[in-house]
């Protein structure tokens, strides 16, 4: 592969976080009956417009998978590309296994947790794979940046990973506005991985220009 191909792969990861976040938040703001303080973003996969979020999961996962190849070629280490690839696989699976309607969404769904079917169990497993892979990736990046003397990036990596870790634990524990804290954490981790990938893509371009 050429440097330009490596940069293209890195740009896939750079786009993944902003694209997934923008599409999910746009739906959260416009879908009837959706309340981010009560409903997880995954619930957007249900209802007549659920295909939008399903597609968002699959596309986001594919972009992360492609981006993981770019991260590997960029020399970011062994574990970060593997963890980003695992997060991508989890996102694709989250699109394939759709969360069950619950808690009044989509509009007309009875209040309460609803029934948990096989697809819902699969979605929860896929989400866990995505979340824990992103958390681990952020902490691995934090350690790498710390060793390289990039203190600011090391802190940002750990903050992003901690935001998702705390958000996930808070949501699992049934804390108030748990779905909101989980969304904030997931978006923070995704955007940080995208930011790192964008920086590496710039470095790749500069390296190619000097050759």
Helical content (DSSP H or I, runs of 4+): over 70%
What is the N-to-C succession of helices and strands?
HHHHHH
Which geometry do the CA atoms define? globular
Q: What proportion of the residues form beta strands (DSSP E)?
A: under 5%
Structural class of the helix and strand makeup? Answer: mainly alpha
Give a count of the beta strands, DSSP E runs of length 2 or more. Answer: 0
Largest sheet: none
What ranges have pLDDT less than 50 throughout 5 or more consecutive residues? Answer: none
Number of domains: 1
Distance between the termini: 15 Å
> What is the gyration radius calculated from CA atoms?
18 Å
Summed up, the helix count is 6
What is the mean pLDDT?
Answer: 93
If you had to describe this structure to a student in words, what would you say it looks like?
The chain is mostly helical and 211 residues long. It has one domain (12-106, 117-201). 73% of the residues lie in helices and 0% in strands. The chain is globular. The protein starts with a helix and ends with a helix. 46% of the residues are buried.
